[in-house]
Write a structure and sequence with these properties.
Length: 298
């Protein structure tokens, strides 16, 4: 984990999940806390080397790899946790994330690894997109970056934006075939917002600090278009839900080798189906106790 300065008050700790850092006269604020206790310990070591003690964590969204370090940081340091209003319940009740994947039911053990279910975290303050706060004369603004999760936020300070998981780099799209998104219509808005924005720096949850994310955001938008075309093409004739899923996964040349991967992909494919159905492009049919989808006839 490397300490990297961006502006006078804004830095980050570069790691598998980048951790943002905002220093004001009296406060040290972390943005996200990584996966687990071991990440939290790495954060504590780097902070201590730099004579810093964090007293606030702002979590961008309720995914285990972004808040999993909270529990250990809370135990070791007297800090406050701030989380988006619509994501806070995931930190407080971590079984919700895998339960979402399992149709809302209590999740089976295969979905309860630390990658999907972290230690629970207290939330002291619920924050909303559009909110601005001033800490010791330093302004911090929260913006909506919904899409990857339903209520993900970005954090802006000194014209640097922490973009969480709003876009993924090209090699991740290639490696995963279908990166995780929960709400495609919102993700399109978020990506267009980032393309048109004019911040000095963009730091994603995973990947490099960028001065301009337009190219990578456009790649994500192109991927969305490809997925929508693929689904509409497959659904020229009606397909049972599982049949559609298998056809999409096969086309993207993905090999599913775990239940975790199965449900992450399933949720993203559902997110595309849901967007297309909402736009009137797809219709559902319930027949013989099965759910089918078909492209709407124009
Ligand atoms: Zn995430």
């Amino acid at each position: 984990m490397k300490y990297c300065e961006i502006t006078e008050n804004v830095s980050f700790l570069s790691d598998r999940v980048n951790i943002g850092l905002i220093k004001t006269k009296n406060h040290t604020i972390l943005i996200d806390s990584g996966l687990d206790k071991s990440t939290a310990n790495k954060i504590l070591r780097v902070l201590s080397k730099n004579n810093l003690t964090a007293d606030i964590i702002i979590n961008t969204h309720g995914h285990a790899d972004h808040y999993g370090g909270n529990a250990h940081l809370i135990e070791k340091t007297d800090l406050q946790v701030w989380a988006p209003r619509g994501e806070a319940h995931l930190l407080e009740f971590p079984e919700y994330e895998p339960a979402y994947f399992f149709g809302g039911a209590y999740p089976p053990p295969e979905l309860c690894s630390k990658f999907l279910k972290a230690e629970p975290s207290r939330v002291d303050r619920r924050i909303s997109a559009g909110e601005r706060i001033n800490i010791d004369g330093i302004e911090i603004e929260f913006v909506s970056l919904a899409g990857h999760s339903l209520h993900q936020i970005g954090v802006v300070c000194q014209n640097v934006i922490f973009t969480a998981d709003s876009y993924v780099e090209e090699d991740i799209i290639k490696k995963h075939g279908i990166p995780y998104y929960a709400d495609i219509a919102s993700a399109v808005k978020t990506l267009n917002y980032l393309v048109e924005s004019d911040f000095d720096y963009y730091l994603p949850g995973h990947g490099e600090l960028l001065k301009n994310p337009a190219e990578v955001c456009r790649l994500n938008l192109d991927f969305f278009k490809k997925m929508e075309d693929l689904i509409c093409n497959i659904l020229k004739t009606k397909k049972e839900e599982a049949e559609l899923f298998a056809a999409v996964v096969e086309d993207r040349k993905i090999k599913i080798n775990s239940m975790q991967k199965y449900f992450l992909l399933k949720t993203t494919v559902n997110a595309f189906v849901s967007k297309l159905a909402g736009e009137g492009e797809l219709e559902s049919i319930i027949k013989d106790n099965k759910l089918y989808w078909i492209k709407s006839s124009v």
